[in-house]
Amino acid sequence: MSLRLSTVILPVDRWHEGGRAKWQRAEELGFHTAYTYDHLSWRTFRDGPWFGALPTLTAAATATERLRLGTLVTSPNFRHPVTLAKELISLDDVSGGRITLGIGAGGNGFDATALGQEAWTPRERADRFGEFVPLLDRLLTDGAVTRDGDFYAAVEARNIPGCVQRPRLPFAVAATGPRGLTLAARYGQAWVTTGDPKLYEEGTPEQSDAALRGQVEKLGEACRAVGRDVAEVDKILLTAFTPDRSRPLDSVDAFVDFAGRQREIGFTEIVVHWPIPDSDFAVDQAVFERIATEAPAKLR
Asked: Which of 207, 278, 295 lies closest to 244 in space, CA to CA?
């Protein structure tokens, strides 16, 4: 089984001062998809430039021709299904049907309180996510939707003509808990994980691989519970958050070894961060580009 290689480009550059060039270079290098984070700000980048995900992806859609584009990930922290659906249908149209929506329950970072609300508990995030995803699915597939939920409402929300991709653009659902995995099994064309965060600081690559294998098995259980073949669901690993950190990007051989292990676990797509100097994602650009162009052939 071949393994797709994708990248995530953080929205930290002005479009005309390097932003556009990165997305175009990602297409030239042959990446399957280029994603971006959908945050209002993020971690160590909070006090620097950070642009909006959907406008960035719209610009990237006009600057590229073949590259798939997407979010890793959008969450309910500051999104509403009705307005998000309208923007996604428009983005899918501009891109000619090249958009994947990475979507997750959100966390307790900066986005959680930026609109003035108290940060939700994990249970509250899961409750909202459990309503957000099904409503967004309906909004992207039905011409008009009315729904009155506990957290989200839609009243004759119209989304004509719908997505270019039918019946709607694909969802890549980020989840590790049972409720999120059930959503991935029911609504996801793909599933996303970053691994087990408890292993990031002191775990070993072997422990991380075992945890990832367990997550894949739980996804399989969730799929069986809803009567779906887990093979229908792509399995995406967003790297840099396991004990391996950025070491797989030290060389082509190091990446092939790492990615080969993940393919054996069951992953179908590996996502690597585009290099950013003086950050946790500071890797050699030349080596990064060699990995992009040479590693896929070694992983077929």
From this structure: 207
